[in-house]
Amino acid sequence: MARDDASDASDDAWRAHVREVGLGLFRALARDARELSASEDAETAEEAARNRVYRYYVPVYEEVVQRLRMHRRKAGTTREGRTPKPMVVGVSAPQGCGKTTLTRTIVDMIKATPKKFLDDSAADESGNVTAVTLSIDDFYLAYEDQAALGEANPGNAMLRYRGNAGTHDLALGSRSLQSLARINDSDGETSKFLAPRYDKLARDGRGDRKPQSEWESVSAPLDVVLLEGWMLGFEPIESDRARAINPDLVVVNERLKEYKAALWGPDNVAWWIIFKVDDPAWVYDWRLEAERKANGGLDDSQVKDFVDRFMPAYEAYLPGLYVDPPPESLVVVVDKHREVLMVHVSTALDSADDAMEA
Fold this sequence. Notes:
Blueprint: H1 3-36, H2 42-78, E1 87-92, H3 99-111, E2 131-135, H4 143-152, H5 170-181, E3 192-195, E4 198-199, E5 208-209, E6 216-219, E7 224-229, H6 239-245, H7 249-256, H8 259-264, E8 271-276, H9 282-293, H10 300-308, H11 311-323, E9 329-334, E10 340-346, E11 356-357
Parallel strand pairs: 1-7, 1-8, 2-7, 8-9
Antiparallel strand pairs: 3-6, 4-5, 9-10, 10-11
């Protein structure tokens, strides 16, 4: 078979695979939507599922796979003969807008991807691409340490409970990402990793880190890590601006200066997916909905009090992230109902040359 013919055949096989994965996901979502909807709304629910799959999940999935191909090609020029380190994708989104659902769905789609579709060197590889999710929430301080932080800052509502910069164990997060970066090393000494996990419902909804016996075991080979978080990619602002927004933000802003180097600098995160919302106040409704759905430990007033502590950070840092995101981020624009309005690749959100209207 000529090289062009082989390439065409490979492209055809890839397109067929994408159609198969998309169809399987659509059928599952449509079935769930029909079961949750009244009979007269079944058609509308099915159409919504179709739009979500083919205008949202599939484009994001294809872009992730394309970035993985680029990552492997780049790694091949610097680490010949060695398995590339995993590609870490940062997923930044306000709380409740759908990032966790996206990451879980994309991971499932990635795991259904045969390695032969990645590049020529993988053409003869058996098995599928491997992936794991990790959340910045998994790096929250243990309950006792968080309580001590609150006591040390009695007048600061933003540090009283988990959430803002300063309430994470950056050493744990940095070690975790470094371990994942080495998991594919040929010496075999780092081929297993225990991913920290955090239980948000523990301690009457205040949360606590799970015991190590309940952490997730991750083994080599590992191809993709989706690192998600509500504040991923935030950049600190000038202290005077922080104080003008909220005096409590000054200390949080100082703590934030340590986060990029520890967690999401370019040495850790190779590529980004960023959710854009017009109004961060939507988080109140989203968080309340999630708490009720999960039968969580917080009542409505506690949910409002909890979300109040994040609003100064949204006001301070979201504008900068939206105007100047990491290069070539995949931007997902969502409305108040978490419907996807647009997906586009951009170096700045005011440049939509590559926009794909949803």
